[in-house]
Amino acid sequence: MAMNRYIGKVTVGEVISWIVLIVVLLFCLLPIAFMLSASFMDAKQIMAMPFDWLPKKSFFTSEGRTFLTNFSKAIHGNNNNNMFFRNLFNSLLVAISCSITTVLLASLCGYGLAKFRFRGRNFVFMSIMATMMIPFEAIMIPLYMVASMFKMMNTYAGLIVPFLVSAFGVFQMRQYLITFPAEYLDASRVDGLGEFPIYWRIVLPNCTPVVATLGILSFRNQWDNLLWPLLVSQREEMKTIPQYISKFSEEKQTDEGALMACALLASIPMFILFFTLSKYFLGGAAVFESRKG
Known about the structure:
By secondary structure, this protein is mostly helical. It folds into two domains: 6-66, no CATH class; 84-292, MetI-like fold. The chain contains 15 helices and two strands. A two-stranded antiparallel ribbon has the order 1-2. Helix 3 crosses helix 14 (256-276) and helix 4 (84-115) packs across helix 8 (167-177).
């Protein structure tokens, strides 16, 4: 009797794997489904137990509310300061800037560590990796003092400069470039290309999957960053989207519906970015895992 039992042409193991994957998928999608549903409800319906996943019909007509009421309040703010689009612009500027600099600097550093042999190369790489073991909270106060010393409070420089590059980005690019064919580099040198033109014209264009992966991860890290902007951005016009969302929970009477609508609006750029670059992101993750192994 065979060890594997078949259900048609599908093994029992495959069926179990699919069931586990579907359960995990549902757990991942549950918070998103709740946010989407709650963004069309009033606070009373959101807090009701058991939770009704569909907005009640009365919500669309009673008390002068419409299905866009929550989104209108999310954009105008709790105190009608109308800072949503300014804070959205701040987050976009910071996230895009950090993503671009992380990709460029990490790829340069990773290329040097992967393809150049020099004394102390492994020490430099391990030193960079060691910084990943230090939690941000441990360096937050010294970093704040440095930012204050250089007059970077309430500026874009204060939000961007501390995150120009990441140790994980260097690690990811280095691991990807270790197996980059050296023959291409040698042929380019024979043709007279300098090292930077080789990097810019040969190496970087052939790293699209890992560049897209690193860019998306860097963008997400800065888009979700709340702790550092809370320290360096006190003026309303310099705050970011996570700070804007947090203000909804600071009120004595939080409007949960507007809070969910604001969270939904703030999630749209990340969804657009991911689905636009998803083929590169998934491909880069797969190639990175295979090369790491």
